[in-house]
Amino acid sequence: MALFGAVFETMPAARTGIDFVHDNALSAGRYLPESMGPGVAILDYDNDGRMDIYFTNSGACDFFTPRRPLRNALYRNQGDGTFTDTTLAAGVAGRDFGIGVSTCDYNRDGWTDLFVTNYGVNVLYRNNRDGTFTDVTKPAGLDAPGLYTVSVWFDYDSNGTDDVFVGHFVKYNKSLERECKYNGIPHYCYPLSYDPWSSRLYRSNGDETFTDVSRESGIGRHLGKVFGAVATDINDDGRLDLFVANDSVPNFLFVNQGRAFDEIGLEAGVAYSADGAARSGMGVDAADYDGDGRQDLFVANFNRERFSIYRNRGDLTFTDEAGPTGIGTATQMFSGWGVKFFDFDHDGDLDLIVANGHPDDRIEEISSTLKHREPLLLFANTGGKFAVLPAVAKDYPARGLAVGDLDNDGAPDVIVANNGEAPVVLRNRGTKNHWLGLALKGPATGARITWSAGGVRRSRLKTAGGSYLSAHDPRELLGLGEAARLDWVEVRWPAPVSRTDRFENVRGGRYYSLRPGGSLE
């Protein structure tokens, strides 16, 4: 375990060239969507091997007319620690009121596409493979309006093409806004004040169009207030399940039955708190934090609710280990959003980072114990328990969070997207431990990576989604500890590929790419 201060360095905008500042459309009336964004994505949109960055921004809608045109922002990685704004040249400025973002390769051409969720109509940007994108939302069949948050691309029916879950928050438009005042001053209303709504699942038709299968799949039959979602395999049956965090209503756990899903959140023990209350689920992730081979779940909740870390018991039930792991006490007074399990020090154990911030910018006017700006928290894994370390000296109104290696040195960096402010870029200074990077090409979500380094065997499942409104570097970083080479590594590809590739005596300290049946390149 490394000390946090020795690992991360805050990179100023003057050094990186990232001059984006989020406009949350702050109004005297405090409309709900103002408090939600933004999201951030780490992606390689031009296939040059360097990770680029995309931020979402607000925009014109029924309650907001910007004083000047607003747009999302795409920054191209120059490879020298700086980034260049290529938004307009790439054609990805966005429209409506931007909320979140995800990345995909929906047409399997090997180039990363973008999907932006909005208050309004979402946008699917097809990568033209020349540094530009085309808005193909309407012909793709993804143009239903709403107040959307998270989107997760995964192949739920195992046919080789990615489908997409699009999470919807509450039933909303300006006429449905609630009024919540304290001492005559407007504050953002708690989501309990609004009605839930159904989310959508779109099945890929394999021809760059999609069919809405929300009802027949079972996803659309459950009304929620969705903020976060992650696709994972909770029972290791080879089919991707979906864990969904809701705000003020029970969480959902959709178990994949092949063509449809069964919702088992209540039976699994992840819908409510231990005392039977629905909490304010926001950011989520899934990983095997205790090394038992099963996928565990994490949810960042509202202040005074404690965050949840659900240990998978192997029988479709989970136990909230927030108390025993130390996470509950550390998060009692915070409101969590972006989150990611990652091995920040390459010791082989999965650590955890969470971005926090109270959604009400006026909370300090009515509370002596809560603050609008809150600290980033790093949880260092100490063998199934977590030691919490502060991320940086400053506190932030954080929302989205993405983890990725921005300088290709093998050390995972962090970007935090702040509500109404500039983002924070944290550069990982690295440790003495060794690493290996793996970029899986093709149908990677659901792939099982197993490796041995120094005689220690570890395993990781390639998930999709997670965090809050954001997308991580798609490459997997494997921590090798003191070993400079892998004894061996195996990749078990999901259906319909359903094969295992194995390599022995692999040198660490570099990135490799792998396609099913191919060699490490």
Task: Throw out a few tags for this protein.
521 residues, mainly beta, five-stranded antiparallel beta sheet, 7 helices, 40 strands, 39% strand
What can you see in these coordinates?
The protein is built from seven helices and 40 strands. It has 521 residues and is mainly beta. The strands form ten sheets. Strands 6, 7, 8, 9, 10, 11, 15 and 16 form an eight-stranded antiparallel sheet that branches.
* β-sheet strand percentage: 35-45%
The average pLDDT value, as a whole number, equals: 96
Which blocks of ≥5 consecutive residues have pLDDT under 50? none
The number of helices is 7
Rg (C-alpha, Å): 21 Å
Would you report the number of β strands? 40
Outline:
By secondary structure, this protein is mainly beta.
Describe the secondary structure blueprint for this structure.
Elements: E1 8-11, H1 13-16, E2 40-43, E3 52-55, E4 73-77, E5 83-85, H2 87-90, E6 97-104, E7 113-121, E8 123-127, E9 133-135, H3 137-140, E10 145-154, E11 163-168, E12 181-182, E13 185-186, E14 197-198, E15 200-204, E16 210-212, H4 214-217, E17 223-224, E18 226-232, E19 241-246, E20 252-256, E21 261-263, H5 265-268, E22 284-287, E23 296-299, E24 308-312, E25 318-320, H6 322-325, H7 327-331, E26 336-342, E27 351-356, E28 377-381, E29 386-390, E30 398-404, E31 413-418, E32 424-428, E33 434-440, E34 448-453, E35 456-461, E36 464-465, E37 476-481, E38 485-492, E39 500-507, E40 511-514
Parallel strand pairs: 33-40
Antiparallel strand pairs: 1-32, 2-3, 3-4, 4-5, 6-7, 7-8, 7-10, 8-9, 10-11, 11-15, 12-13, 14-17, 15-16, 18-19, 18-36, 19-20, 20-21, 22-23, 23-24, 24-25, 26-27, 27-28, 28-29, 30-31, 31-32, 33-37, 34-35, 34-38, 38-39
